[in-house]
Specification:
Elements (H helix, E strand, L loop, with lengths): L9 H10 L8 H20 L4 H8 L4 E5 L6 E2 L1 H14 L5 E2 L7 H15 L3 H18 L6 H4 L4 H17 L4 H12 L15 H21 L15 H6 L7 H4 L11 E2 L10 H12 L7 E8 L4 H4 L3 H5 L4 H4 L3 H11 L15 H7 L2 E5 L11 E7 L4 E6 L12 H14 L4 H12 L14
Parallel strand pairs: 5-6
Antiparallel strand pairs: 1-2, 3-4, 5-7, 7-8
Helix pairs in contact: 1-9, 2-4, 2-5, 2-19, 3-4, 4-5, 4-10, 5-6, 5-8, 5-10, 6-8, 8-9, 8-10, 9-10, 13-17, 17-18, 19-20
Length: about 450
């Protein structure tokens, strides 16, 4: 052992806890959340299957195999399927969020574990363990040094996703503790994802989940084959947090302390709108304004109280957020999203077409939206919304949303998740019969053999 290194590393402590988990040992709430994740992710893959970025992702793969790209006839190898499915699941920004991260777990972990199991271990019970483990690792990693990865210019889902996917695939394939440590160490050198997509609405955020998913598979398979990774991948002087958070000091107990006995996965939130998570409470406020009978033309100015940590992604440059250059950029522009919710009574999948982002009533209202930083905003532990509108008659109206709908304080029901799936499946061109058949398959997938062939096409 090199001088100064821990005798037992963070990764070794985590790996010991992962291999101690057994099929059937998950709490009912955690198992139910993993069922919801499966339904949600498959629906998201279907809704995006005909989008140009998914077609490009498929065209960029030259690794055909036996694994399912959901919604497509073409089959790929495990890494390729995980990449395409992860990219599709994250592409519309309609996927789950972990409050406290913020990170998106389902779009990384579900594609990675399903593809790995479809190819290497088609045991639904192990897929369930893998999805639970991978999700838990990804979410807990975001708590070690909150907000630091985003502040450093990286996408936490991309960075922590590679690690979570390696852990989840490792658990699903039955790797031993030493192999899981190696898989985590290897994945640390595969992690990456800058947030420069924010500048002009480029597509790269969409592939971050898919890249992390395929990286986790490759890392786990390399470890299973004997490839050695650094055991101090997390806390090391040149480790993951040094590289992507610019510190090695963090709350590593948030990752390992009660892992396997308390499941933060249970707190995953499912989005009601297909756009940036922190924008969603503001949309709720705007919808309530419209429900009062206030017309957009009655508004002289809107001022929103916001968290400082969200400004660089959702509020600045303000002119671009008021008039986004394209539909993808619009998903991360609160003034546009707020105005869309106000004018149209909500924000759906159709709010990001070229016609939609040029709607003159929406743009006129968005131009009136400004922000001030609230130093007491609880982000990232809670996502809140606030609108203060000055009307043309001089009166002032105000509304607050105290939490994220779909999150731990107001969770979606199973029927809500199913309804969202059916909406996404229809949007992606599936018939009602295809949607119903997929739901039937998923209802028993964790109890049987992983066979995703009926989700092709």
């Amino acid at each position: 052992m090199a001088s100064g290194l821990r005798r037992i590393s963070v990764a070794e402590t985590l790996a010991d806890k992962i291999v101690a988990l057994r099929p059937g040992a998950l709490p009912a709430a955690t198992m139910r959340k993993c069922e919801d994740l499966l339904i949600d992710v498959v629906g998201l893959c279907v809704t995006a299957r005909n989008q140009d970025y998914v077609e490009s992702a498929l065209a960029g793969c030259d690794d055909d195999g036996v694994c399912t790209a959901i919604g497509h006839q073409r089959t790929l190898n495990a890494a390729g399927a995980a990449f395409v499915n992860g990219t599709a699941a994250h592409g519309e920004d309609f996927d789950d969020t972990f409050e406290g991260g913020p990170v998106h777990a389902g779009a990384v972990i579900v594609p990675a574990v399903l593809a790995a199991c479809e190819r290497h271990n088609p045991d639904g019970r192990m897929a369930l363990i893998g999805i639970a483990v991978g999700t838990e690792v990804l979410c807990r990693l975001s708590l070690v040094v909150p907000k630091a990865v985003h502040k450093a210019g990286f996408h936490p889902t991309a960075i922590f996703g590679a690690m979570g996917a390696a852990a989840g695939v490792g658990a699903a394939l039955g790797l031993n503790a030493r192999q899981i440590v190696d898989a985590l160490g290897i994945a640390g050198s595969m992690a990456g994802g800058i947030i420069e997509y924010l500048a002009e609405g480029a597509w790269t955020k969409r592939l971050h989940a898919g890249w992390a998913a395929q990286s986790g598979i490759r890392a786990a398979l390399l470890a299973r084959g004997g490839f050695v990774g650094p055991r101090t991948v997390f806390e090391g002087v040149h480790g993951l947090f040094h590289g992507f958070a610019h510190t090695t000091e963090g709350d590593y107990a948030a990752l390992t302390g009660d892992f396997g006995t308390r499941w933060v996965t249970d707190r995953l939130a499912f989005k009601p709108y297909p756009c940036g998570t922190m924008a969603q409470p503001y949309i709720d406020c705007a919808r309530r304004f419209a429900a009062r009978g206030i017309e957009p033309e009655d508004v002289a100015e809107i001022v929103c109280e916001v968290a400082e940590g969200t400004v660089h992604r959702l509020w600045e440059p303000l002119a671009d957020k008021q008039r986004p250059p394209n539909g993808y950029a619009a998903k991360f522009a609160v003034p546009y999203l707020l105005a869309t919710g106000f004018v149209h009574g909500g924000v759906g999948l159709g709010a990001f077409t070229e016609d939609a982002i040029g709607d003159p009533r929406v743009l006129a209202l968005a131009a009136k939206v400004k922000f001030v930083i609230d130093p007491d905003n609880p982000y990232p532990n809670n996502y809140t919304g606030h609108i203060r509108a000055i009307l043309t008659d001089g009166s002032v109206v105000e509304d607050r949303q105290p939490h994220l709908r779909g999150g731990g304080r107001e969770p979606l029901t199973r029927q809500d998740v199913v309804d969202k799936f059916l909406l996404n499946a229809e949007h992606g061109g599936w018939s009602a019969a295809q949607g119903d058949a997929a739901l039937k398959l998923m209802a028993g997938l964790y109890n049987g053999r992983i066979d995703l062939s009926s989700l092709r096409g």
